[in-house]
Amino acid sequence: MTTYTGVVRRLLLSSSPDNRAIERLQLSFYLADPYLHSIGHAVGNAMERGSTKSLQFTIWADTHHPSYEHCVLLGQRFMSFFQACPSAFRWLTSLILQNLTFGDSDISKILNICTKLEFLSLTYCDSVIDRVTGDDVVLTIDVPRSALVAVEIITCGYAGVDLIQAPKLQRLVCANWIGVNPPLRFGNVPHLHSITLRHAALHWQRPFPLSHCLSNATSLSIMYLNFADQMIWIEPEDPKHLSPIFSHLRDVYLYNIFYECDLNWTMFVLEAAPSLSNFYLKVLFQSISVSCFFYHDIMYHGISYLGIHAKGAGARTVLRR
To answer: Taxonomically, which superkingdom (predicted)?
Structure first.
């Protein structure tokens, strides 16, 4: 980190008004003292010149497989870095974090200060356990004036995610959640058009109707659901409950369906999505038998592209209009 910090400082100091401006800056570094403040202040000074359009921080833990206690320490270290270098974080457009345990309101503070932030990725992150109830904390995103366009929440320890207000949000990825189903709740997300849910269901997590999760996400055009070759964690439901949500849905990808599942259960998605054009199914490890009635129903609903892929067997079925 000593060499890295020195190179970053020299690079940014050399980008004076008399030299070529840095339009895009991507920095990846470990969350290690005493280097953070030097990096942050150098970035902040460079950003104040106003020539940089894109600034990305990718920040890693300073050890592999950190304990919970060390993740708490890393969360505190990050917030100290964040508070000491406001000029850098005010210009941040992309933030990628791993293995941090935050305090109750830390994420809200970050999002409210980083007003230019467009992309937030959290992997193996969580918040400190509620001291009163002993429960995991719900991640709340309530940023009515935020520039946030894309969010990834991957293998995090939150009880759920509550997107109260994210008016510019367009893409969401949520994978490997630990809380009860459904994992998400949406408020004001008028521009959310792409959602990816990827999860190997735990034995106690009950399947849920998609309408309970996506009720306010009425602009969806692309939906990826990955079942990791495990239990199907969505519950088929009356299409009339989904029709307002799926009215603009164009592309559906159902990945890694358990090979013993009958694909007919997927028909409720077709019936709820009048604009659906492309329908892609992937089944792992075995060949699959699909009835002619299934194909007939698919084509009856006006699908332009149907792809069925049995990965292990190398079998692929494609129908195009």
So the answer is: Eukaryota
